[in-house]
Amino acid sequence: MRVRWLVAVVAVLCAANWLNNVALPGAYPWISLVEVLVLLLLAAGAGLRPDDLGLARPTWRRGLRWGAVSFAVVLVLYLLALAFPAGRDAFLDQRAHLSLGGALYAAFLSVPVGTVLLEEVGFRGVLWGMVCRLRGPVWATLVSSLLFGFWHVLPSLGLGGNNRVVGALSGSTFLITLAAVLATALAGVLFAALRWRSRSLLAPFVLHWATNGLGYLLGAAIWAISG
Predict the structure, then answer these.
(1) How far apart are the C-alpha atoms of 74 and 216, rounded to whole Å?
(2) CA-to-CA dists, residue 93 to 71, 158, 209, 216, angstroms
(3) What DSSP state is assigned to residue 27?
(4) How far does Cα 4 stand from its chain's mean position?
């Protein structure tokens, strides 16, 4: 596999980030489907097999088992956080201030299709698989996680205004963005390690959805209760 394929994938991800966050944010779930297709075509052109992408059928059951455990851990941690006032305040994010229909749409369509599918296929699937072919799984984990952190620069720009707990911690957009990049890079390491350990993209997909999707559902519930 040649480096040019890797450069092409990074370029597609950069374009996707700009389209989804700046140019056409309202249509990002549907645009993400096209972006995923382009990424998979690049993977095929580079000669990656389903096993390289974490999509081989024999790994599905193992991936779902790891995913189920990850889901349970996230759910328990979220419920524990809700037991404390500061934890409940953290869920009062303006992005989750939604009606029941809006929360269901976010949790079961925009998050899994627009966010999780694109990011898992892009970073833990195609990008991880390409770098792994070139330099091995450790480099694949480091490179994909670092780029995953930078991927969140644009989404983090309004974070202080959306979440009052984050805004109260620091009024500096730079510090909030830096913290978001570092946090998501570390999350990327966790997702990549889960993909590496399970050999399946399904495991980090479920964990990623649990982190975001449950956050929307619980956040909408807390907003409704708080009035």
Answers:
(1) 13
(2) 21, 11, 17, 9
(3) G
(4) 25
CA distance 27 to 20: 7
- The residue type found at 89 is D
- CB contact at 8 A, 124 and 195: yes
Rounded Cα distance between 22 and 151, Å, is: 13
Say which DSSP state 93 is in. B
Return the exposure string of 184-214: e unless at least 16 CB atoms fall within 10 Å of the residue's CB, then b: bbebbbbbbbbbbebebbbbbbbbbbbbbbb
- pTM score of the predicted model: 0.96
Structure token pair of residue 210: 């649990």
pLDDT digits (tens, 9 = 90+) for 7-49: 999 999 999 999 999 999 999 999 999 999 999 999 999 999 9
First-last CA distance in the chain: 56
Closest to 60 measured CA to CA, from 72, 73, 49, 50: 50
Q: Give the residue from 168, 178, 22 showing the smallest Cα distance to 93.
A: 168
Write down the mean pLDDT value for the chain: 94
